[in-house]
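Q: Got a minute? One more chain.
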Amino acid sequence: MAVDAQSILNFLLEKRGVKTPEAKATFLSPGFEKHTHNPFLLKDMDKAVERLCQALKNDERIAVFSDYDADGIPGAVIFKDFLDKVGAKNFEIYIPHRHDEGFGLNMSAIDEIADRGAKVLITIDCGIADVKEITYAKSKNIDVIITDHHEAHADIKDAYAVIDPKQNGCPYPDKNICGSGVAFKFISAFLQKYGTKFNVTSGWEKWLLDMVAIATLSDMVSLTGENRVLTHYGLLVMRKTPRVGLNALFEKLRIRKKYLTEDDIAFSITPRINAASRMGEPEQAFKLLSAGKLDDVEVLVKSLEHLNNERKGTVAALVKEVRKIVSERNAPDKKIIVAGNPHWRPSLLGLAANSFANEFSCPVFLWGRDGENMIKGSCRSGGGVSVFSLMQAVRPGVLVDFGGHSASGGFSVAEGSVHTLEQELSLALGGIAIGEEVEKDEYDMQLLPEDVSWQLYDALSALSPFGVGNKKPLFLFNDVKIRAARLFGKEKQHMEYE
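A: Always. Here it is, folded:
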């Protein structure tokens, strides 16, 4: 007997913990004003927007320092849009070189920014771990406003303001928004309080949600709570975005803007933004996404495509090399994988680490050497382990620096400790809590072929956007005969059945 689409939808909602009529209505029909939180609930927000307003009124130079990935770069774009909108002229966007400068603030960047006369420095998707650098910036008479979403190491007393939902004492209800999401809340708060003074109409900031959606989907944060709302409306904005660079990219990738989904972002847009930074040219992605005119857009699209193809080849060779090491060490029997080579480029290691973490369901730490001769690496979670908690548990002196969250992170290692890194991490792993591992092949429910209908398709579409915390439904069909199977995709890496 066929099951109707509404019954299937209700079952899927309840399985995801959405059980009450009110919760179901919120999940299926999120309202922007109703289901997002007041930005002033973020600790230090009032102080931060007041300082920015002062800087704008007094024409003080503002430097926006963003991370170089697909969370930070969209955040840089929305801040540029915002500063242009309020009529700011005296500002700069600084995106560090991933290989030469590494993650977060650095002393040489602060020197450059100070030399150009900056009085206010706003970070996007970084800064929460940069205690020494912020103290140095203060010594240069620069007020630092941190906007970040990573775990806080300690109180940063020398920052002018810290906006991070994960910091101690922050009452913000949703701790899971991404870096660009935090930056968006900063802009929302500013316009809520000072928008009329700068002739910006209330609600204008919603046009920035396309970038917030890209960042949220790219950073693999949970698509529940406020993230679901921001991504839902961000996709709506993106389907009618006037951004010439984004539209040129859609055309190049043959993405039908009207029907754009989260998969188009995850599998087409995000890799190209990240490729720019991994290959040492993050400004290419920033210029394309922030382009205001058609001039040079085609050149930028081609450049991004070239960088992405170059990145694919380099990562494929790296994965092959790591796999050989993993195989030689009998990794399936290990609770953690640690591998490195001074010739490996740290900017590419996150992709390889993610691949092996998924395959072996254990934490993976890979290291290489950066342009400043520092040993740095990336790590990814697996088997229910928080890599941030794991790095916190490592004996002091082994890791020079580290940052990130439960799913992923970055680290640098003391020169004399790199050869004992696996031993140190294994020792730390024994002392932390490990969550339950989710069965990879668990399906949601069993259906019959006659249950499949356009009504079911429409019902399932209401569950989107899909991602972390809201996986696509997986159904089991028994005794179904496959008539044909074919490979598809540019590299024939996918298969579909008929």
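A: The chain has a mean pLDDT of 90.
Q: Perfect, thanks.
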